Amino acid sequence: MTKNIFLILLLLFSKFCVIAQNKEILFEESYTLLNSMSDNESNYNFKKAVFSVENAYLDDNLDTTFVYKQIKLLHGLSTAIINSKTLNYVERDKDIVNKRASIFSILCDTIPVDVNGKMYKYEPFGYDFNDVFGHKMPENLFVSKLLSTHKGNCHSMPYLYKILCEEIGIDANLALAPNHIYIKHRSIKDGWYNTELTSRIFPIDAWIMASGFVHIDAITNGVYMKALGNKESIALVLIDLANNYNTKFPKNDGAFILKCCENAIKLYPNFASALILRAETHYKQIGKIQDKVKQDSLFKDLQKEYEHIHQIGYRNMPEDMYLNWLVSLKEERSKFENKKLNTFNKN
User: How far apart are CA 282 and CA 218, in angstroms?
Assistant: First the structure.
């Protein structure tokens, strides 16, 4: 009897190991895809990058049929908006600006929709203040969750905006602020301007500075307020993959995390989140080393990592202060809104 119980436990343990290994393979496959996009620009596809990360965390259970159908519907709505409305904008890049405005409307505006002569009201996406950092459930940061609930945050909403822009054939630059992602665009008439989806306005740069956690060195070094290119956007997704892996496999040895971090840093050298995650992973690894001499030597190297993060201008912003800062943008709209962009109002 004892022998039989032992065999049953052994089989169960083996089955558990196989399942865990299969789950890890999904993360490796996602990493391979992201790596191919960073190595070869012709492989770039932000939509596929984002959903590969979400699918890995969801154990290959992402409803891709649903999310792709939703994106197709939003693409169609964008086309309808572009064909039915124009902007008070006459420069030669007006077609691009009009397309951007259509995506902004999809995320931020209530839109009347005529379906076979019957009018419906399209409701915009809203901000979800529940678990905005994904501490309880990483899924709260997912674009698939945003598409399913129409509620998102400063992670999922800019990602969806960029996906939809690329679906209609235009670029969108993600940009970073403390604990935050937003959009930066450039037009002939207005130069660089900010698009803030969570508060649905076009804020001036002073809004970022008002957080109190943006050192001038962070701006100079591209830690914050930089218009990120496609490769740098893939760096953001690589760190999403690493963070999801950490959540899914909390007792990992750090090897996969560091692989993601190193590639992300290669694509975006002053990406603070990647530098911090690499340092934190090194710290965990060093703590397991028994050789005191080796441990002390590695701690000196780790100190240099943290010094570098400080030197490029990164400052930690407490989460409660971030939420207060985010709310202040809506409450002090007149103070931070870019008045030049009133031409983005529809006729």
Answer: 23
Q: Which H/E stretch holds residue 148?
A: helix 143-149
Give ∠ CA 126-128-130 in degrees, rounded to 5: 170
Q: Which domain holds residue 160?
A: 2-344
pLDDT tens per residue across all 347 residues of the chain:
555 665 555 554 444 444 456 789 999 999 999 999 998 889 999 999 999 999 999 999 999 999 999 999 999 999 999 988 778 888 999 999 999 999 999 999 988 877 667 777 889 999 998 999 999 999 999 999 999 999 999 999 999 999 999 999 999 999 999 999 999 999 999 999 999 998 899 999 999 888 889 999 999 999 999 999 999 999 999 999 999 999 999 999 999 999 999 999 999 999 999 999 999 999 999 999 999 999 999 999 999 999 999 999 999 999 999 988 988 888 888 889 887 775 444 43
- Torsional class of 126: left (φ above 0), alpha (ψ -120 to 50), beta (otherwise): beta
Q: Which helix (H) or strand (E) holds 182?
A: strand 180-187
Domain count, the chain: 1
Q: For the residues of 215-272, what is the DSSP string, one character each?
A: -HHHHHTTSSS----HHHHHHHHHHHHHHHHHHH-TT--SHHHHHHHHHHHHHSTT-H
What's the whole-model pTM score? 0.91
